Amino acid sequence: MGFTGRCIGVHEFGGPEVLSVFDDVKSAAAPERVVLRTRYCGVNPVDVSFRVGRMRGYAGDPTPGLVLGMECAGEVVDSRDPGLPVGALVNALTLPGEGPHAGSYAEYVEVDARRAALVPFGLAADAAAVIPLNGVTASSIVDELAPGGTVAVTGAAGALGRFLVAAASGAGLTTIAIARAADTALLLRLGADRVLDTATLGSDGAPPVDAVVDAASLGPGLTDWFAPVDTIVKVRADAEYTLPHRRLIEANVRRATDVAGRIAVWNRRVRHRPEIVGPIERFVPDEVAAAQERLATRHRRGRVVLRWRECGPVGRPGGSRSSQLTLARHRDGE
């Protein structure tokens, strides 16, 4: 059984103008494969990295059509996994470049059942759509840190930072959140033992820590705040560090184990503590360029999603098979 729908991606690397929409057919033809009819997909900075060509090693040749997007939530319409039956609401991690049109910017997404989990009752679909990438990344990072230690998280109030604070505190690590003073109450609720204001760190410095997870990608800037540490975890592959350290870990969600189990754990956590995700801003698929641009807004809090379900078909100006997307401003029916 095949499901034909629209997807959004690129045929060449570049700016927003290279984003295009094209047709695709998805089916769960192999074991442990599931097809979702997408309700929402997350929009993340890594999607922009794929679009501009910074992820060529994973993207491969975009000419046949590289579909963007690394997470989504939707109803199962075809399944080869008894644990994810047709009709169930599921959220999943997707890996662009892994196969033909493997990203989540699509009406129908074929996913690996080992990277998907049932969405529990009470968890909204838009929130579920933005759990897999940051949730799996955060818990995988924390698993690499020495138990019982002290960890500092930069960018702690950001999209990944919130998951990191919750994961580290949940694992019993003494967790120091680096953020603006205005975010102190939020981060303490998420489990931080202490919140340090970025405005005063330059003069006061941070207390000794065992590890720094650099979710803000400050790179050499860490040297101004911290004494030498055992471990630095970098989130951006191109980040470089002058702070003395013994071990450098590069976060890479593609190496994560037990992905479905990790997503399921975060689904339960976020259902009870939605502030881990924060506010969600919705765009329709035709606004994908604007949605990606929104990611660059300074001090933005919360998440950005594309809303596929109930927003009508994605436009194809001129009726061609692959065409540039319009930026019609009709988010959520406006």
TrEMBL record:
Protein's name in the database: Alcohol dehydrogenase-like N-terminal domain-containing protein
GO MF: NADPH binding; oxidoreductase activity, acting on NAD(P)H
Superkingdom of source: Bacteria
Region (Disordered): 314-334
Keyword annotations: NADP, Oxidoreductase
Organism: Tsukamurella sputi
Pfam families recorded: ADH_N (PF08240)
SUPFAM superfamilies cross-referenced by the UniProt entry: GroES-like, NAD(P)-binding Rossmann-fold domains
InterPro entries referenced in this protein's UniProt entry, alphabetically: ADH-like_N (IPR013154), GroES-like_sf (IPR011032), NAD(P)-bd_dom_sf (IPR036291)
